[in-house]
Design goal:
Chain B: One of its GO terms (cellular component) is nucleus. Chain B: It holds the Pfam family CENP-P. The complex is a heterodimer. Chain A is of the alpha+beta class. Chain A contains six helices and eight strands. In chain A, α3 packs antiparallel against α4, α4 runs parallel beside α6 and α5 runs antiparallel to α6. The longest helix of chain A has 37 residues. The model of chain A has no long low-confidence stretch (mean pLDDT 87). By secondary structure, chain B is of the alpha+beta class. Chain B is built from eight helices and eight strands. In chain B, the strands form two sheets. Chain B has a four-stranded antiparallel sheet. In chain B, strands 5-6-7-8 form a four-stranded antiparallel sheet. In chain B, β2 and β3 form a beta hairpin. The chains are: A alpha+beta, B alpha+beta. At the A-B interface, α1, α2, β1, β2 and α4 of A face α1, α2, α3, β1 and β4 of B. β3 of chain A pairs antiparallel with β4 of chain B, so a sheet runs across the interface.
Chain lengths: 255, 287
């Protein structure tokens, strides 16, 4: 029991001194920050700058610029015999999936060859690489980025559609490339509290297209609804459905 | 059971460590973002580094390690710029908010894509959720050099609205490449056939005139416009306007009428350079 008591006292002493040490560090830092904020008005360094500080500042600047390249859709860095690239996709302001490519340069030829990659098989990567890569790497990357971006965009539209309308949308079929899809959706009829059922089918013929080429929207009985198919053709899926909801609610209250 | 006795101590320790982390990051941000070294400062410090060969490390990286890091990063940047065609000329950033999981920064970025200049301002939000980092761009504002073109401004507005900076850059890249392609093509033909080719608006203009060396007044004007539609797709449009003096018209009306049509077919089949080359050959052999 005596030992136990001593152990507890030891522990308490340790914790207290640790707190003391941390408080001192914290207070010193608060002062440092306060001083730095008050110096904000004076840009630049008056005296000869410390080489370490300059190096660290430059390194940070470079890292930031390299990170900014993500926003252009293509970032990367040199690798032993070539370049290692990341292709970034986005939809409505959010950065989404990244795909990676390794390109190697054979000697000093200035021509590049595709090595490893993480691009899904339904993207025609090999064909694009064969046709474009050796002569025109930028065009190759540009077209590949379009394929990837539109694919991820279509997939994200579908995800947002299901997220925003979990109870009123049911996906019937979609393929991996997300360029063919069909789903059921229902709109509440305000007055009766009942639902109207619809079915839509979309096909994107151009793999680099952001809008569907063939859209059919029909009622449960197979009657075409051109207003719906027009909206689905023009707007991203979740926004189209939002408008469909709004206009249907509008007509039932006035009708 | 003894744990509960020490809980308040441990809680305070955790809170202090968190605060220390936040203050350290805040200090780093303030220093990084408010300091700008002039080129002379940087040159001076590189010289003083070269003077000192030994450096006390204190567990930090030595100056030579830092230098190696910087060299590797500085080699990556130009390669990436060459590969993508994007050249960032100036950048400034302000950290508005930083916690363990969330960072909000305001960025101002200028640069060129080939010959087209751009200037962007945007807010960047990064949230860390377990392993996943999500990045969202908002408050996007874009200024482009060729902003007077109504198509370009429509595209820019719709991009600003949804904050899609990646689509902006990708579309800009293709658009700028076409300008570059046109410039290089005009230059190639001007250099190869200086007596036949004239560029009244220079290499940056959108038309080229081929003058017949044999028949005075007989000219072929090739117009090459580069459009950017609202969705960001670049659409090059080429057309041919023959300028024909009266006597030539009288003698060979039909063959002159056919020139624009056959140029358009040649474009589809053989591409731009070959089609223009063929036209020049026709002009040279014209009686």
């Amino acid at each position: 029991a005596q030992e136990r008591q001593e152990q507890l006292q030891e522990r308490e002493k340790f914790l207290k001194s640790r707190i003391q040490e941390l408080r001192q560090r914290r207070d010193a830092l608060r002062e440092k920050v306060r001083q730095a904020v008050s110096e904000l008005g004076n840009l630049g360094i008056a005296s000869e700058p410390d080489p370490r500080e300059v190096l660290e500042w430059k390194i940070q600047k470079c890292r930031e610029l390299l990170r900014l390249f993500r926003l252009t859709g293509i970032s990367g860095k040199l690798s032993p015999h070539g370049i290692s690239l990341s292709l970034h996709t986005s939809f409505e302001g959010s950065l989404l999936d990244s795909f990676h490519l390794e390109l190697q340069e054979r000697g000093d030829s200035g021509r590049f060859w595709l090595c490893r990659h993480s691009v899904p098989p339904f993207i025609p990567l090999e064909r694009l690489a064969r046709e474009l890569l050796p002569r025109n790497p930028r065009q190759f990357l540009g077209i590949l980025c379009r394929h990837l971006n539109t694919f991820v965009g279509r997939r994200e539209q579908l995800r947002k559609l299901q997220e925003e309308f979990p109870d009123s949308v049911q996906v019937l079929s979609q393929n991996s490339l997300c360029n063919f899809l069909s789903f059921r959706y229902r709109i509440p009829a305000e007055s009766s509290g009942e639902f109207q059922e619809f079915r839509a089918q979309l096909r994107y013929r151009d793999p680099t297209g952001t809008r569907p080429d063939d859209v059919t929207a029909v009622t449960g009985d197979g009657v075409a609804v051109p207003e719906h198919s027009e909206l689905l053709r023009r707007l991203p899926l979740h926004r189209a459905l939002r408008q469909i909801h709004d206009t249907t609610a509008g007509t039932t209250t006035t009708g | 059971m003894d744990k509960s006795i020490f809980q308040p101590y441990e809680d305070e320790i955790r809170a202090l460590e968190e605060e220390i982390w936040l203050l350290t990051e805040k200090y780093k941000d303030i220093r990084q973002e408010s300091i700008s070294f002039s080129d002379e400062d940087i040159l001076q410090s590189t010289r003083s580094f070269q003077r000192e060969t030994q450096e006390e490390t204190n567990g930090q990286e030595s100056l030579s390690e830092l230098k190696a890091q910087l060299e590797s990063l500085e080699a990556d940047l130009p390669s990436l710029m060459k590969f993508t065609g994007f050249h960032f000329t100036s950048h400034s950033k302000k950290t508005l908010e930083r916690t363990r999981n969330r960072t909000v920064e305001k960025h101002r970025l200028s640069g060129k894509c080939h010959s087209l200049s751009f200037q962007l301002e945007f807010q960047l939000l990064e949230v860390q959720d377990n392993e996943k980092v999500s990045t969202v761009v908002s408050d996007l504002s874009i200024i482009m050099e060729s902003g007077e073109d109504s198509n370009v401004s429509k595209f820019v507005s719709s991009t600003e609205e949804c904050g899609d900076v990646v689509t902006f850059f990708r579309s800009l890249s293709t658009y700028a490449e076409w300008f570059e392609h046109r410039r290089r093509t005009f230059l190639h033909f001007k250099a190869k056939y200086p007596d036949i080719v004239t560029l009244p608006e220079g290499l940056g203009g959108d038309f080229i005139i081929l003058r017949s060396p044999k028949v005075s007044g007989f000219e072929l004007v090739i117009v090459w416009k580069i459009h950017l539609n609202e969705e960001g797709t670049t659409i090059p449009v080429l057309d041919l306007l023959p300028k024909v003096p009266e006597q030539v018209l009288e003698n060979s009306m039909t063959s002159v009428e056919n020139i624009p049509g056959s140029f358009r077919s040649a474009l589809r089949l053989f591409g731009i350079e070959v089609s223009i080359e063929n036209l020049i050959k026709v002009l040279r052999s014209e009686k």
